[in-house]
Amino acid sequence: MAEESADMSVKRAKQDEEDNGVSESAVDMDKEGNPDYISSLIPGWFSEISPMWPGEAHSLKVEKILFQGKSDYQNIMVFQSSTYGKVLVLDGVIQITERDECAYQEMITHLPLCSIPNPKKVLVIGGGDGGVLREVARHSSVEHIDICEIDKMVVDVSKQFFPDVAVGYEDPRVTLHVGDGVAFLKAVPEGTYDAVIVDSSDPIGPAQELFKKPFFESVAKALRPGGVVCTQAESIWLHMHIIEDIVANCRQIFKGSVNYAWTTVPTYPSGVIGFMLCSTEGPPVDFKHPVNPIDAEESQIKSKRPLKFYNSEIHSAAFCLPSFAKKVIESK
Amino acid sequence: MAEESADMSVKRAKQDEEDNGVSESAVDMDKEGNPDYISSLIPGWFSEISPMWPGEAHSLKVEKILFQGKSDYQNIMVFQSSTYGKVLVLDGVIQITERDECAYQEMITHLPLCSIPNPKKVLVIGGGDGGVLREVARHSSVEHIDICEIDKMVVDVSKQFFPDVAVGYEDPRVTLHVGDGVAFLKAVPEGTYDAVIVDSSDPIGPAQELFKKPFFESVAKALRPGGVVCTQAESIWLHMHIIEDIVANCRQIFKGSVNYAWTTVPTYPSGVIGFMLCSTEGPPVDFKHPVNPIDAEESQIKSKRPLKFYNSEIHSAAFCLPSFAKKVIESK
């Protein structure tokens, strides 16, 4: 079944992990039986070890741990790194660092919003740190921004430790809904949004439903004709099997255009992250040629923060894929 | 002085290293006082720690160490990793892994060679592993390929452990010169080559001269009018100060076009690597629009190995830069 495939991928990755003995050898457990990521490699460094990328780990030197907590959904940690600024970690996986968060937040937001004229109603699923909100707020055509984040602690932690990211919540157009994104979408009247942005973590843990077919069906229903969705869609270097499944699902569900784009984020595994960009049946959307370029100066005045990463050239370039990925994605 | 600036950058990085205490705390020394990279983190993992990227390290799980040696120029190691195939390490820094070497080798070669019509004489400086030769050999217009590598042990180790990379040496058009690239270039008659590819390691160790102004002057002299050079040019995320210096030097020396391009390579620090692409005065070269597209089928027949990464779309996309990098590079 298509909706089980993402799970299957994770199972495959878990099998790899067992084969490689990653979890046994590399992650210590603390007194409560939780993985103790801080002390697992060099003392004083944080290492990102996961069955999603077996056999490799990126480490950052820790200056100070600023927060460690356990919400109803996940382990949350914030630390001051020596060269990447403050770092937000969920269940042992880096979500944002102050040094490179611009690449992810700007691309996941402006790739969809610059591809349609005058977006007015936008929904963000996940994205509790507020960074996507900050970027959506640059678009003066936008009248209303809903965000549905499952984990209130992520929102609170971001407001406390990442004010330049959580600044997105200060925009008066934003309404925060704390709850399950899947349930929220089911209750949305048909054709409500111009754009939906799914800023999820990996398909292990609370985000796993966001990679399955029923979720994409709800997204399509919630969009107006010719509306667009952009979802976090993993790495072409590490997760082609997950990407294959997502692309196959999206081609069945979204009757407009279906595209894969990607960008560089140094602190994400393999250094890249991808996005699925799809549109519903209706006015055609050509994602590769943005019709709604964001005016750097206007956006700067509005948000008091210049774009660091996104521009119209890099928008189009993001859809150009290496041959090995192009072959797989275009065959779906 | 401009030619000292790359050195200055390294000094700055070294200062950062001392401030962060990376070398003291994280790299053990073996009995002979050499850094012991294998045992520096978790036993059984290789970790890449360097003053060039302070405060972070990428680690690969080691299945087996296949070779460790010390040449006249550097420490050389080959290991079998658990998920990236065989890995070549020089002075503790990953040069190639079997899993992602395609991205680097194909881009550093085809970006210059697809940008000019009918390249005939090509010089490779560095690139002792042979991967660039393999890619140059795909171009049927090429009649002669010189390679000047300083370290014979790199050539021998590659031939022994990386046959799919060192296969480049089997092409009858190749002549290997073991020696110093700087001296080799000085002896080259003016206007000899259509293209020069500088496949160097970082500007610490044997490759440091390859980042300085006198070297670029020799390259310009060795090229025909409208000839092209492509040099390894570090990461926009980590080394903007080095890149600034290289760009400033190149704008003074190359009177044709001067461009910066980049690509993803997961096992390089920050996950990306860049290239300086310049042309000498003469027939104009528009690097962003390749005039000599490589025919996938023809190249496949000739080399018996399909292109995995490069295509004409990704060629043009490689010149699109994030705003933060574009601003600095275009201001030089």
From TrEMBL, chains A, B:
Give the matching InterPro entries.
Answer: PABS, PABS_CS, SAM-dependent_MTases_sf, Spermi_synthase, Spermi_synthase_euk, Spermidine_synt_N, Spermidine_synt_N_sf
Q: List its EC numbers.
A: 2.5.1.16
Keyword terms of this UniProt record:
Polyamine biosynthesis, Transferase
Q: In which pathway does it act?
A: Amine and polyamine biosynthesis; spermidine biosynthesis; spermidine from putrescine: step 1/1
Report the catalytic activity.
Answer: S-adenosyl 3-(methylsulfanyl)propylamine + putrescine = S-methyl-5'-thioadenosine + spermidine + H(+)
Annotated region Disordered: the residues are: 1-32
Specify the superkingdom.
Eukaryota
User: Where are the active-site residues found?
Assistant: D199
Which Gene Ontology BP terms does the record give?
spermidine biosynthetic process
Q: What class of enzyme is it?
A: transferase
Q: Which Pfam families does the UniProt record give?
A: Spermine_synt_N, Spermine_synth
Q: Name one GO cellular component term.
A: cytosol
Q: Which residues form the PABS domain?
A: 43-280
- Give the GO molecular function terms: spermidine synthase activity
Q: Which family does it belong to?
A: Belongs to the spermidine/spermine synthase family.
Q: Which NCBIfam families match?
A: PRK00811.1, speE
> What is this protein's name?
spermidine synthase
Organism, as annotated: Rubroshorea leprosula
